[in-house]
Amino acid sequence: MTNFDCVIHGGQIATTEGVSTGDIGIRDGKIAAMAEKIEGGARRIDATGRIVMPGGIETHAHIAQESSSGVMTADDYLSGSISAAIGGNSSFIPFAAQQRGENVDDVLATYDARGARSVIDYSYHLIISDPRPEVLSDQLPRAFARGITSFKVFMTYDLMNIGDGGMLDILTVARKHGAITMVHAENNDMVKWMNRQLAERDLTAPKYHAISRPELAEQEAINRAVQLAKLADAALFVVHVSTEGGAEIIRREQFNGAKLFAETCPQYLSLTRDDLNRPGMEGARYICSPPLRDAATQEALWHHIRMGTFVGVHSDHAPYRADATGKFLNGFDVPYPKIANGMPGIGLRLPWLFSEGVVAGRITLEQFVALSSTNTAKVFGCTTKGRLAPGMDADIAIWDPEARYAVTLEDQHDNMDYTPLEGRELTGRPETVLTRGAVVVDKGALKATEGQGRFFGRAPVDLRARPGAMVKEFDPAQNFGVDLRG
Ligand code: DUC
Ligand code: ZN
Ligand code: ZN
Questions:
Q1: Which terminal residue of the chain, N or C, has fewer Cβ atoms less than 10 Å from its own Cβ?
Q2: Which ligand 1 atom minimizes the distance to the CA of 60?
Q3: Is the pLDDT of residue 41 over 60?
Q4: 3-class secondary structure, 170
Q5: Residue 307 alpha carbon to ligand 1 centre in Å
Q6: Which atom of ligand 1 is nearest to the CA of 288?
Q7: CB of 156 closer than 6 A to ligand 1?
Q8: Mean pLDDT (the chain, rounded)
């Protein structure tokens, strides 16, 4: 009987609810059946001794993206998606970035051409650096109408920072349409002031990057971003949280009912500021913003992962090679502020999280599933992805939970010339990955063809668990009857 295109059988099926042995039948790119035993199938994949789970959804990656200072990432949608797939992801949501003066429709057309090379399904978060009136009134609603339901803004970097007023304008448009606003939260003036203190003392080696962006700069900006979002009654997603204080503000405001979500990233859990102090300019490889912190912070961030403060652990893959195309575009012996911010990680996010999280006993397998796909699918409106259930896309990853290996650059599939986790011993890795039923990685070998991934539009943010509340100044019963929400 071959009424299924493919049957995955005998694996330990892991979801956010639990783990059980069973089979999955796939037809026309969708999960058609799940049962203890499924016969038939044009293709049968034996998953005995393996974990079968939803394919990862990487929701923080910079792919084929120019920075505001003109540095292009080393990965395009082909190499970036291949690296993501081999790392256990069935889809991803990189950024489409508006630079100042640009029209959002043109930006999206540019990224549509870039995205067409992807081997896994993809969508975009739209970075907005120039919220002009026509951007707010026409271009963002058009982006939303095609399923781009998440925007991203920066509170730092002079060429990206949109100020509190710009942020309120974007949050307001986002609320009206059901979009979520992501934020890079660091206080720009605190960072610039610290940069001046360090420059005046000639302290410009990579290690000083760590102290140039104080923990307080993140905490102040997270708190401000949350208050702005509460005033606009809008959903907010704080990216790359790197401090205990920042996580605690988020936890408290979530408890108070804010429409608030957040993530952290593997680098804040696996590396420290000591890595910035490696010999010569090697420390430049570890420059990312916010900067790496310390061991005590890592423990605190793990605690917040366990307690649910973070819906995901995403890579913030920002691939700038350690050469003149990336980190050293401005020269090899330059002060830290002239070195590109970011490091690679899209291929190792899930293997690292599985090893250091599940194998090391810090999180359960169910939490791993939630953090790698299910939670973020909900927040970012990926309605057909992130869960194993009949009717969902057959986006599936099959893992060998016992494989032991050391990370090497040679085994990476991105376009980078280093990996920050070189030499790390890990346990567990994805072997086979399906995107809409197509096997893109088969026992570790790439089987994908360029361009087989499809753009997917997304639904509005799911706020059922975080309904928020209108502030009294917007409530006609308490504001002299004024309708401020329009
Ligand atoms: N922020 C990111 O989200 N990624 C790379 C650099 C940065 O500042
Ligand atoms: Zn950022
Ligand atoms: Zn980023």
A1: C
A2: 3
A3: yes
A4: helix
A5: 25
A6: 6
A7: no
A8: 97
Instruction: Compute, in angstroms, the gap from residue 317 CA to the centroid of ligand 1.
Output: 9
Ligand 1, residues 59, 341, 349: which to mutate, most atoms within 8 A of Cβ? 341
* 441 CB near ligand 1 (under 6 Å): no
The pLDDT assigned to 19 comes to: 98
- Tens digit of each residue's pLDDT (9 = 90 or more) over 435-486: 999 999 999 999 999 999 999 999 999 999 898 989 999 999 999 999 988 7
Residue 119 has pLDDT above 70, yes or no: yes
Lowest mean pLDDT among 191-205, 276-290, 396-410, 458-472: 458-472
Residue 103 identity: N
Which stretches of 335-438 are DSSP H helices?
Answer: 349-353, 365-369, 375-379
Report the distance separating Cα 135 and Cα 143, nearest Å.
10
Contact 276, 292 (CB under 8 A): yes
Question: Tens digit of pLDDT for each residue in 139-167?
Answer: 999 999 999 999 999 999 999 999 999 99
Q: Does residue 269 have its Cβ closer than 6 Å to ligand 1?
A: no
* Shortest-distance atom of ligand 1 to CA 289: 8
Enter the tokens of residue 258.
Answer: 């804010």
Q: In percent, how much of the chain has pLDDT > 90?
A: 96
132 Cα–ligand 2 center, Å: 22
Q: What is the pLDDT of residues 283-296, one digit of tens each?
A: 999 999 999 999 99
Stated pTM of the model: 0.98
Whether 59 lines ligand 1, by a CB cut-off of 6 Å, is: no
Ligand 1 centre from 287 Cα, in Å? 10
Query: How many CA atoms within 13 Å lie on the side-chain side of 285?
Result: 20
Of 192, 197, 255, 190, which is closest to residue 218 (Cα–Cα)? 190
Residues 350-387 as b/e (b if ≥16 CB within 10 A, e otherwise) read bbbbbbbbbbeebbbbbbbbbbbbbbbbbbbbbbbbbb
Shortest CA distance to 313 belongs to which of 280, 351, 341, 284?
A: 351
Report the candidate in 56, 45, 58 with the shortest Cα–Cα distance to residue 315: 58
pLDDT of the residue at 2: 57
